[in-house]
What we know:
4 copies of one chain form a homotetramer. By secondary structure, chain A is of the alpha/beta class. Chain A has a domain at 53-104 and 134-295: Deoxyhypusine synthase (Deoxyhypusine Synthase, 3-Layer(aba) Sandwich), CATH 3.40.910.10. Helices cover 46% and strands 18% of the residues of chain A. In chain A, the strands form 3 sheets. The first copy, chain A, has a 6-stranded parallel β-sheet with strand order 7-2-1-9-10-11, with helices on both faces. The first copy, chain A, has a 3-stranded antiparallel β-sheet with strand order 3-5-4. In chain A, strand 10 (251-258), helix 12 (272-277) and strand 11 (281-291) form a beta-alpha-beta unit. In chain A, helix 1 crosses helix 2, helix 1 packs across helix 13 and helix 7 (156-165) crosses helix 8. The interface between A and D is large, with 75 and 75 residues.
Amino acid sequence: xxxxxxxxxxxxxxxxxxxxxxxxxxxxxxxxxxxxxxxxxxxxxxxxxxxxxxxxxxxxxxxxxxxxxxxxxxxxxxxxxxxxxxxxxxxxxxxxxxxxxxxxxxxxxxxxxxxxxxxxxxxxxxxxxxxxxxxxxxxxxxxxxxxxxxxxxxxxxxxxxxxxxxxxxxxxxxxxxxxxxxxxxxxxxxxxxxxxxxxxxxxxxxxxxxxxxxxxxxxxxxxxxxxxxxxxxxxxxxxxxxxxxxxxxxxxxxxxxxxxxxxxxxxxxxxxxxxxxxxxxxxxxxxxxxxxxxxxxxxxxxxxxxxxxxx
Amino acid sequence: xxxxxxxxxxxxxxxxxxxxxxxxxxxxxxxxxxxxxxxxxxxxxxxxxxxxxxxxxxxxxxxxxxxxxxxxxxxxxxxxxxxxxxxxxxxxxxxxxxxxxxxxxxxxxxxxxxxxxxxxxxxxxxxxxxxxxxxxxxxxxxxxxxxxxxxxxxxxxxxxxxxxxxxxxxxxxxxxxxxxxxxxxxxxxxxxxxxxxxxxxxxxxxxxxxxxxxxxxxxxxxxxxxxxxxxxxxxxxxxxxxxxxxxxxxxxxxxxxxxxxxxxxxxxxxxxxxxxxxxxxxxxxxxxxxxxxxxxxxxxxxxxxxxxxxx
Amino acid sequence: xxxxxxxxxxxxxxxxxxxxxxxxxxxxxxxxxxxxxxxxxxxxxxxxxxxxxxxxxxxxxxxxxxxxxxxxxxxxxxxxxxxxxxxxxxxxxxxxxxxxxxxxxxxxxxxxxxxxxxxxxxxxxxxxxxxxxxxxxxxxxxxxxxxxxxxxxxxxxxxxxxxxxxxxxxxxxxxxxxxxxxxxxxxxxxxxxxxxxxxxxxxxxxxxxxxxxxxxxxxxxxxxxxxxxxxxxxxxxxxxxxxxxxxxxxxxxxxxxxxxxxxxxxxxxxxxxxxxxxxxxxxxxxxxxxxxxxxxxxxxxxxxxxxxxxx
Amino acid sequence: xxxxxxxxxxxxxxxxxxxxxxxxxxxxxxxxxxxxxxxxxxxxxxxxxxxxxxxxxxxxxxxxxxxxxxxxxxxxxxxxxxxxxxxxxxxxxxxxxxxxxxxxxxxxxxxxxxxxxxxxxxxxxxxxxxxxxxxxxxxxxxxxxxxxxxxxxxxxxxxxxxxxxxxxxxxxxxxxxxxxxxxxxxxxxxxxxxxxxxxxxxxxxxxxxxxxxxxxxxxxxxxxxxxxxxxxxxxxxxxxxxxxxxxxxxxxxxxxxxxxxxxxxxxxxxxxxxxxxxxxxxxxxxxxxxxxxxxxxxxxxxxxxxxxxxx
Lengths: 311, 311, 311, 311
């Protein structure tokens, strides 16, 4: 037997003024560790976006909107690169907050949190959000909810579409405009949920936990092929992956950006290979995980992929 | 100004046959890093369990039941140490699987996942679950669902209680017996959810996404004090913490066991101090995070705390 | 082909007053993730310590002495369970500090470091060390160095043995008493090194960087079998592993406790399997990595292993 | 008291063909987590490189040369941006291997390491290095060593300079050409060390462990200001930081790229703030840590900084 090597490692070269796509190509020539994985991720994402038969999922976890990554997701929707978005409730909450004109602020991670609380400042690592935002958020949300016909039953995605339709910027707005469904299985687990609880003290509208699964699974059955980008893990990752458990074939393309680690057993850090054993990915699926912080790796992934598509 | 030190570090001593509680006390004398934090966690958990006025939450994330940690949670319920459990859907799925007599198996993390798939074996890091389990799971779940009155609306916790009532071991069973509610905001995001989707192809029962929030928040308003143990982050952590946002005061005790890291911004790795800025913890709350693998730290926490309570 | 599973996962059971060894056995029955790995580590370490033909290495990295873990290493030497110790210079520096009667103190990780500096307090995560300790350290070290014959050439291990011989507690002292050599390839990279620099301003003693390799490799060639425990990675891990590159066979037993991760490519987080490709471990070597904080995992490993040996 | 916020978070925008510097500026506008830190790192590194009075250190740990990052270090030396390099022995070993015309190869992390060993392939995560390289390495190294005058005493940096002078590409070569000293305190802990052991079986040259400290500390005393970039932690980080312990002032600029975490207590994951308590950084020093994989963050840091300097 002869053992076959891959290409030789080339020492990466950087030069002033190089584009993001050029840098990622250098990471591919080096080809090691997460730098090499990021290059593979761009290769896979490029192929996935060029594949017109592929249904394109995007899973959004982690405090990405407070961290300034929501604009990239909104842009991907606007460009037609996301067919189905699955998000945590928190990202949607913060998307509303920005869309109604409130702001998150640059802060630090080492102030006294008890003092921040007294000042009315909520901390997300090194980002600050003043309490005022939630006052305006409440006003906006109660307005949206009050438009729901009393006694009706709605799905979570309908509720989110209703919110997005009243906004003119951000993820929810772009999704509503583009007709992209947003699924948020744990919608209760967010400030949107708490607002809904307040609304439901005096109103009777049932939000069906399971209703969205029909539309989602129908799309999965219809799709020729499917691909997914996962930012973080959590519910969005699992919900997207499990959606292909009922169909005969799994995802064909998958890119995962996560800071977790596999050896703890949790899904958020699990390799995409693990998903092959479940049939959530096909045996031949092109898939890669880039471990690291998505506030670096998501912009790089998207900038480099767009450069290839449009460059 | 005179700077005040804490106690001097004592080099930890181990001896053959020492109890877990004795070992944790040695970690406390050493007092450094996560070993010191584990000792603090036992101190806090002991005080929390001794506080009869405190409402006791438990958040369960990560693949803990496949990893053999479900028995400890069931035991804590049986002993009356959990008042409210918030879980991922996956842990409840695997709890059912074990309760109906199927098993997870010791495996390895380095086999070919494509081959595992062909063999009908699903992998969770180094744990294997054969497909047969899901056949029996389907049969059981459809049986439970078929008992739901057609046309009715139920909450998620009612659905879970109905499942637990038909089992005689495990978390769902112990919770049903003890009248401990299990909240699972993202129930759709699990094999239970997929089974429900199948059931709902031909049946009409609405599961209300938000219904459980009323009971949960009522308990929060009534409670004199509150404490929480978080195994992993995800939806359970956030859902528990946000439940105190509407009350005038936050949690008084909190212990978090997580393998994530704070600098990525996500809630799962966020410090408990961050929660103080939001008012989810009181400014004076006793709280500590132990970073590491919960398959080690949860058994140690519980064994050492029970030793103190009953020793 | 029939696929063979391992044992069924048993849900771990904890009870008040159980011993550390009993807890580790429960982790083995659960058998998942790092809990399962810790049980394997105890199995391997027990076999290694029972093997009288095996040369026993111990690699010590990370701030383990300030974190109160030095006493366990000293105890292992005293019990005859370490034949060769490889350490960072920092651990030996802090061992001297404790041995001459100074102390590290419990602190916190969130004070202002600039203020700590003004107060004369040095921080190691949540451990404090006052500057006074270094004044007494200097006096002690210069005393040791002044005993070196001017114009002579010594090896690093001789220098460390000379230090240990003047102490009556701790790692250096126990090693000197037991005749266990301590190798510290980067001795310059420590406060011991800075003290030596001061000494060498006015004295002429050459410390040979490579001299110790002869004794080390002779032991490796003579040994029937060999085993190693690695606490952290760094120079100690690599130096121990490379010592078997020249012999015909690699290590037969290896246990690694580390908080690093493999995907970054560095040796500290590398799996022990990787070492097999280099021949540093034999193909059949029993080896396991437990990812996590050694201030928890080292005491558990040692307490459970001693319980098996002496229980 | 009025609480002051920083700037509002701006959602990062990416566009096809943007430069690396433009992307980093977007990360700065987002300003969160490690993306925000990377932008700060570029700010600090730019100021440090523009400061002609600052002595510029570079610490190199982790398997960076096998991972294709050595070329960037060599380029920084060539451009005059490194005054003093501190490296692990492994990176220098692999630099020699590439410089004498051997190659590392793209591989995978999931082959059988026992089989790789039989095939004569050494693995570094997903990079392969065939044994043949070490045969040519041995020949080259023994040639270099044989030029050492028998009976002489040399410093480690002299030895490394002698190696670099015989090469015409890579880190050692560029450093020799530029007169940049390379310090490698743990030189024994590498294949260079093992080659030296072979040489010293029949030759008598003493390599002094401490000799280099004089030149290093003299430079520190002379320097008006000082700055450092740390890729990884380990000996290079500590050795650079401790070099300022003897002078009256600490480092003025510091950028750390690491994948480790602070809560384990080890220096490799320690914050740069911790170094302020020791006086290794001045109280006012500009310093930031970017957590993540250096195969992504180092090329970004350097490309963006050079774009600012030369753009």
